[in-house]
Each structure stands twice: as C-alpha cells, then as structure tokens.
Amino acid sequence: MEFNGNHLIELGYRPAKWFKEAIAYINENKLDENQIKEYLEQFKQPELIPLHETAKDFVINIRAEHESENDNVEKVINTMNVLMKTPTLVAGAIMPDACPTGPVGQIPVGGVVVAKNAIHPGFHSADICCSVMLTDFGKADPKEVLDAAHSVTHFGYGGRPRGEQMEMSQELMDAFRANDFLNDEKLISIARSHMGTQGDGNHFLFVGISKNTGNTMLVTHHGSRAPGAALYDKGMKVANRFRMENSPETLRENAWIPYDSKEGKSYWEALKLIRTWTKENHISIHDATLNKLGIEKEDRYWNEHNFVFKDGDLFYHAKGATPLDDKFMPDITGPRLIPLNMAEPVLIVKGTTNERNLGFAPHGAGRNFSRSQHKKSLAHKTTEEIFAEETKGLDVRFFTNEIDISELPTAYKSAKNVRAQIEEYGLCEVLDEVMPYGCIMAGDVQKNAPWKRKKKFRKA
Fold this sequence. Notes:
Mn(2+) 2 binds at residue 221. Keywords: GTP-binding, Ligase, Manganese, Metal-binding, Nucleotide-binding, RNA repair. The protein is of the alpha+beta class. The protein is 35% helix and 21% strand. The chain folds into 2 domains: 5-43, no CATH class; 122-458, Alpha-Beta Complex (tRNA-splicing ligase RtcB). The protein has helices at residues 5-10, 19-28, 33-40, 70-83, 121-124, 142-152, 170-177, 185-194, 225-246, 262-293, 371-377, 383-390, 415-424, 450-459; strands at residues 58-60, 89-99, 109-116, 118-119, 130-136, 204-210, 216-222, 257-258, 299-311, 314-319, 321-323, 336-338, 346-350, 360-362, 395-398, 429-441. The longest helix has 32 residues, at 262-293.
C-alpha cells in the first residue's frame, strides 16, 4: 500500500507544502517504518501557537450617544474581545467612528491593533492604503474647481479606457517587477489603467472653503483600487498557509505573515509600493485639475487611514484610523485630514501619541447601520426627496448620474457626536475646517452596471 498524506497526519504532522515531496520520496525509495521516521525528522514542526487565553487590553474611545447607537457600540466591543485573543496582538484601540465590518472577531472599521513581528492582510483588507489628499487652490472659484475636477476624474468599476489613461511612473513599474508579490505583468497593466481612478462606495472628490483662510480646497478620498485588491488576495493566501501550519485556532480573517520570513519581508515591501502607487493616483487627479485651470497649488498634504505602520518589531494595523505620530509617515507633508460627510467640514488636525489613542485619531464618521438597513429606513420617501433634503445648499454630483442614498449624510453617524468624542477622549486637535461647497461620488454603480446591460441585450 502506498504511503499518503493521511499516514503523515496519523504520525502527528500537520498538512504542509512539503507533504507532496515527502510522500513521493517515501514511495519511490520504499522506506520501511523506521526509515520513514528517520527521514521525517527534518520536517519536525514547531509547537502550535495558541490563542491568548484572555483578550489583550484595548482602549475604548467610543460610547453610544443615542439609543440607536447601542447595538453598534456593543458589536464593536464584542468583536474586539474576540479579535484581541489573536496570538500576535499586544495592544489595541477603537475610535469614536468605529463600526463592525463582518463576523465577530474581525477588525472593525475605526480599529487599531498592534502586532509583534507580524503583518495581518485581513486587518488592512482589500482597500489597502485608503487615504485622503488635500490641495490648496488659493482663491479659485469653488465651482470652477469642482467642474474642472469632474472633467478629469474617473469613478466606477475598472480602469480608464485606452487614450484616457494617466501615466504611472516607470520607476514604480520597475519596483513592482522587482517584488515577489507584484511581479505580474497583468497586475502592472491593471495598475496603469487604474491610475487616475477613484472607484465607488464611500470614495469621493470634495471641494470646500478653508474656515481660516477662505481658500478653496480640493480633497480626494480613495485607496489602491485593483492593484491593492490583488495584493490583498495574494497576502491572504500566504497568511492562511502560515496559519494552518502554525496557529489553526486563529480565525482565517486574522491570519498573519511572520515579518521575519522571506514572505513577510517581501509583503512589507509590496505594501509600501502600493502606498506609493496610491499617492501617485491622488496626485494625478489633483495635478490634472490644476492644469485644467492653469493655476499652481499653494499647499498640499496627504495621509492614509487604512494601512500598516511599522515601528521596530511592532506593526500598527489601522483599519480606518488616522495616523498622528510622525514616525508612522516617513513622507510627512503637513497636518492630517478627517472627512466626516458631504454636508460637514473636512477636519484638518494634528496630534501626538497618548495613552488613549496609540498615535491615531478617527478617520471620519462611521456607519451605525448597514447600507441596506439605511435604505429600508428611508423607504417611505422617494430617492429625489431624500437627495433634496440631505444636500440642500450643496453642489453634490454622482458620476454615474444615479443617486446613491446609502452615501448621503444620514447614512453615517452624527458628525457632531464624533467631534465631541474626539475632544472628550483627547484624541487630536482641530486646526482648521474645510467647509463644504460640493462633491462628486460614484453613485449607484449597480443600477446600470455594464454586465446588467449585457444581460438585457442578450434577452432582447
């Protein structure tokens, strides 16, 4: 009878990538029982890494301001109590805009967790380096800025069509090719076509007026698009392989890549390259708008709020939290940005690390309810009525021309409450506010999605 994987498992070995090679060697050389045991000594596996017996401490910078928020806050705390049993974690915090994102134990939006010598792809998710950039347009007319931006930006699925693509730097393409995770010509082609695009969901292009200076400001919000999503998929596969070998009790979404492994070093470099791509993406849209208007920028700053930040052997995973400490941002260019909703100002803030914030602040105003729950709560009104009420006095546009009520102000937590809790917990200091003039969002991309139009055509 041929030796197989079940025999290895019976001998106490956990499934691993070396199984195939070992089984072939044993069968080809017809090893006896003693020879098999001697041969398998080289594959001796380390002790499994157990979950923490009790959850590691985390700071709670959130409380329910209204009865409708009780369920949200309770779920966030419950999920953190499970999450903080993950073996690599040493500290954590939740912000005033926190909200759950999936099964219990999965990092919530508005969560920060600190892992020792480990990178968790599930903690940054597919939207790697979701970030915000501000450019000061001086005394430019806000309508002209919004019109110009509308003519050059791109929302929705996929990349830009040929002939309309924005340039990706040759230096960055070369760096992609030198990385084990990003060295894929198809991925590089996608990265080129997605340059200058903003996606969908809660990503936006916002124009407003500085409360301090009266200058017109352009703010964009988006992540790394398809290149980041591709890296996330690859990272999760590698992390899950390590999880199965070393800590199968750990939840799949909390799997990690050990930083001291070859894969860990390569993944960390890939994350930094995706960060560079995302920053280039913001700059391409801002510079195209400046060029359209024929003016020079007066100032610019940028920060991510969904990323992994390294400090020695500690990896700070921020899932929707704004980095304040300068050590997290090697290319620091100014204060940080916290957008709230389209009808509220974008906050310009600064801050330092303290015992409550771990060096981070909120990233906006999170959701109290899911998109579908929010839509059901407004079912007694027409879409047009809701839009008129919630965007009164603002120039709000949807790139697809289809209103998405799940992105209107009432879809989010009270901006007033989030700001009050920022002050209450001493998370950061507000320096200025960019008062809203208008914004552009993708809109309801599902309503007339390309694949739906194709289905209708086939039926016709």
